[in-house]
Amino acid sequence: MLNVGHRGASGPAPEHTFSAYDLGIEQGADYIEQDLQQTADGTLVVLHDETLDRTARGPVENCKGLVRSKTLEQIKTCDVGSWFNDEYPDRARPEYVGLKIPTLREVFEEYGKDVNYYIETKRPALAERMEERLLELMSDFDLRRPAAERWQVLIQSFAPESLVKVHALDPSLPLIQLYFGAKNTSPWIQGTLDAARKYAVGIGPAKDSTDGPLVKAAHEHCLAVHPYTVNEKPEMESLIGLGVDGMFTNFPDRLEEVLGTRTLPWDTAAARAAEASRTCRGVSGADAGGGSGTTGDSSRERSDGGSSSTPSSDRVEILGTSRVGAKPRLGLGVKGVPRRCASSFVARLVLTGGRGGSIRVYVDGRRVAKKGRRAVQVRVACGDLEPGLHRLRAVGASRAGGRVGRTIRFFAR
Ligand code: G3P
Ligand code: CA
């Protein structure tokens, strides 16, 4: 069951900001969603609406009107946090004031391969080369292969032409066909599935269009079903009962709570969904990618259920690499972080490549390693933490300027 943070965790934080994305990851989202708009000078930025009017505040000439009529420089003068504080005083936070509209490049720079992305092309017919620019950026950050192999990036659109174009550019990429709520009923969507399965691996219907016959028909076409936008626990439970494979929610923590022990780590959940899709279509792993589908059930299995404080791996894995083109490639190895922890664990971190550097380690945003070096050990006392999901983040920096980060979630109990 894929937990998709809709515009991030956009219930408690302003949509499509780093605050909403960070919170979504912290709350257990397997994916963070990006809605793409394109500026007048051809930069992909992340904003839901075509216009700036609802969520942007700032100079009127820059922050009102269509995104595609503004330059990136103009867009960057706008604040997309203050509206949230005004609209939701009970959830307001001072740090939301002044938050900027991120570019997709900035999102990739921030999270690299540490998260899964669920990216929507918005009004692509009015944005020249939107799909090409998206794929170029994915190439810059080495995300195309992990997208194809383990669904690290899912590309979604209401516009079939946009998805068909992406499929033509790169048939290996996993695509999701979206459908408009009441306008697209379950029977109507069912009539499109033969066409959709030719380029897509899944569908994103509105929750109110999602019923048993649609889920059954989609699965018969090897298409995963990810309804939107599901914010209340009873409707989450009901959709899970129908057999959906994931869902968009503004409150990823609620879905995590509903799933309980059925939840999986974000990367395992996506990889299993990709594998289920290939299995359904009879495609081998080597032929990974779009046009395959899913039966959807495998990602709903129990997570490890393992003993407390058992490391998920004993070997040092290279969990991330730097994204600095010409500079020496960096690797960040991490071992010893358990999935579940009752007492304590020792995490060992080592920076590889580059020409020297240092590592900083945080637990839930609090720095826990005082002195950065190329290799550090950190003891984490789980007994001192609140029971529940926590986040260990390691950031390595080389003297040459490269940077690599990795976030690992663990449960304290
Ligand atoms: O992309 C799924 C869902 O987000 C579609 O609705 O309007 O929030 O982009 P919207
Ligand atoms: Ca969307």
Which ligands accompany this protein? SN-glycerol-3-phosphate, calcium ion
What fraction strand?
15-25%
What overall geometry do the principal axes of the alpha carbons give? globular
Class computed from helices, strands and strand pairing: alpha/beta
Helix % is 25-40%
The CATH architecture of the largest domain comes to: Alpha-Beta Barrel
The total number of structural domains is 2
Say how many strands there are. 18
Can you describe what's shown?
The protein has 413 residues and is of the alpha/beta class. It contains 14 helices and 18 strands. The chain has two domains: 2-287, Phosphatidylinositol (PI) phosphodiesterase (TIM Barrel, Alpha-Beta Barrel); 318-412, Immunoglobulin-like. It has helices at residues 18-26, 60-63, 72-75, 82-87, 104-111, 130-140, 144-150, 160-169, 186-190, 193-196, 212-220, 233-242, 252-259, 266-281; strands at residues 2-5, 31-38, 44-46, 116-121, 153-157, 175-178, 202-204, 224-225, 246-249, 317-321, 330-335, 340-341, 344-353, 357-363, 366-367, 375-381, 388-398, 403-412. The strands form three sheets. Strands 1, 2, 3, 4, 5, 6, 7, 8 and 9 form a nine-stranded mixed beta sheet that branches. A five-stranded mixed beta sheet has the order 12-18-17-14-15, with no helix packed on it. The longest helix has 16 residues, at 266-281. Bound molecules: SN-glycerol-3-phosphate (G3P) and calcium ion (CA). Calcium ion is lined by residues 33, 35, 120.
